Fold this sequence. Notes:
Elements lengths: L3 E3 L4 H7 L3 E4 L2 E8 L5 H18 L7 E8 L9 H8 L5 E6 L10 E7 L2
Parallel strand pairs: 4-5
Antiparallel strand pairs: 1-2, 2-3, 3-6, 4-6
EC number: 3.5.99.10
Protein name: 2-iminobutanoate/2-iminopropanoate deaminase
Keywords: Hydrolase
Amino acid sequence: MTITRISSGSPFEEQIGYSRAVVAGGFVHVAGTVGQGETVQEQCRAALATIQSALEKAGASLSDAVRVTYYLPDRAEFEPCWPILRETFGANPPAATMVECALIDPKYRIEIEVTTLAP
């Protein structure tokens, strides 16, 4: 089996020792991704943009998503993201889970992990 590792160039990838995405076994697995911004909506959009960029490097897109997991420190902040997520996934919604938990830094309000079909 061929494995392709994709980097976004984030310093965390080298510091922590992970890839932004890995193409293996017919899937593209994108690591949990946070985004910059003041609001949960800004962070959600930024995280999705980083994910989309990694998927493009793998030859995939968010329309190929089969699974998504959302991690939020405050579950009440998930609902404001729903319109963004509906817009992003449109007619191709993946299976999804939302987990309330602490993130690596308190400034982050959402982390998103995606699995898509590989091209």
